[in-house]
Amino acid sequence: MNFSLYPEIDPRETGLLKVSELHSIYWERCGNCLGIPILIVHGGPGGGSQKSYRRYFDPAKFDIIQFDQRGCGRSIPHSELQENTTQDLVNDMEKLRDFLKIKDWHLFGGSWGSTLSLVYSIKHPNRVKSLILRGIFLCRESELLWFYQKGASEIFPEEFEAYESLIPIEEREDLIRAFYKMLTSKNKLIREKASIAWTRWEMATSHLIPDNSYLIKSGNTLFSDAFARIECHYFINNIFLEKNFILKYISAVESIPTTIIQGRYDVVCPVRSAWDLRKALPNSKLVIVDDAGHSMRERGITTELLRATNLI
Predict the structure, then answer these.
(1) Phi-psi sector, 269: left (phi>0), alpha (psi -120 to 50), beta
(2) Mean per-residue pLDDT for 47-76?
(3) Average pLDDT over residues 160-181
(4) Model confidence over 88-110: pLDDT tens digits?
(5) φ, ψ for residue 288, nearest 5 deg
(6) pLDDT band at residue 214 under the 50/70/90 scheme
(7) Confidence band of 194 (pLDDT split at 50, 70, 90)
(8) HEC string of the chain?
(9) In the chain, what are the domains?
(10) In the predicted structure, residue 296 carries a pLDDT above the cut 80
(11) By C-alpha distance, which of 302, 299, 295, 294 is closest to 265?
C-alpha cells in the first residue's frame, strides 16, 4: 500500500462559529461531504490548523474537519487569553459537532492535540468512534519540567541557552513563570522577544534532524505571539484541570479504539508518556517509530499516520 501524502485540496466549506460573547472559532470541511467524519485537533495549544493536515486523509473517503482553537489561527480575537481554558475548548468541539450536525466522529490529534482529544473523549466518550494520537502529551509536571526547565536542555544546549537567555538569572528557577510574565507584558517589544524565543525553542527541537523551515516559522510574530502566549497560559495553569487528570479518568476511554504513534527520539514529548498511556489503555495500539522525533512531517511518523487513517 502507498503511504504517500494525498494531494493538496481546498476546503469545500469554511466559517466562523461564535462560541461565546468574546470568541469565534474558524472551521473548515474538506473531502467527501458524505464521507467518514474525522476531526483534526491541532497542537500547541495555540498552534492553529494547517492546510498540510488535510493531506493525511483520503478525500474520497473522509469528511475532513479542522478548526482553530480559541485565540489562534483564524479564530478571533487573536492571542486572547480570557475565556480560554481546556473546558472551553472541549465545549467548542461539542458546539462545532452540533453545528455541523455530526452524530459522532473520529479524532486525529498530535502533541497538545493528543491531550485535548483525550480530555474530550473522557468528557464525551459516546461521541468518539476512534482516536489516532501522535506525540503524546499528558501535561504532567514531569513533562513540563523536562521540556521547559531541565531535560531537553541537555540534548539541545545551544538552543536552550538562547531560550533562557531572555530571563534574568535570578528568575531561571521557574522559566515557565518567568516567560509568562514577559508574554503578558504590556510592553510590545518584551512580549515579541519572549514569544519568538519560546516558539523557536519548540521549533528547534521538534525534528530528529533540525528543520530550518520550522525555525523560520518561529520568526512569524503573528504565529509566535498566539503560540507562545496560549501555551504558557495553559501550562502555568496546569491546563485548567486537576493534577494528572487524563490518567486518573482514562477508564472512560477504554472502549474507544486508540492508535498511538510516537517517535522514539521525541524530545518535546518523550516516549515515556506514550508508554504510560498505552499501559493505562489495554485496548490501544502503540507504534514507536525508531528513527523519528516529534514532528508529524518526519517520514516514519507520516507513514504510520497514513497507515492508521487508511484502516478506519
Answers:
(1) beta
(2) 98
(3) 98
(4) 999 999 999 999 999 999 999 99
(5) -100, 125
(6) confident
(7) very high
(8) CCCCCCCCCCCCEEEEEECCCCCEEEEEEEECCCCEEEEEECCCCCCCCCHHHHHHCCCCCEEEEEECCCCCCCCECCCCCCCCCHHHHHHHHHHHHHHCCCCCEEEEEECHHHHHHHHHHHHCHHHEEEEEEECCCCCCHHHHHHHHCCCHHHCCHHHHHHHHCCCCHHHCCCHHHHHHHHHCCCCHHHHHHHHHHHHHHHHHHCCCCCCHHHHHHHCCHHHHHHHHHHHHHHHHCHHHCCCCHHHHCHHHHCCCCEEEEEECCCCCCCHHHHHHHHHHCCCCEEEEECCCCCCCCCHHHHHHHHHHHHCC
(9) 13-139+240-310 (3.40.50.1820), 142-239 (no CATH)
(10) yes
(11) 294
Cell of 236: 502555568
Q: pLDDT tens, 171-182?
A: 999 999 999 999
Which active-site residues does the annotation give?
111, 266, 294
- Check whether 289 has a pLDDT greater than 90: yes
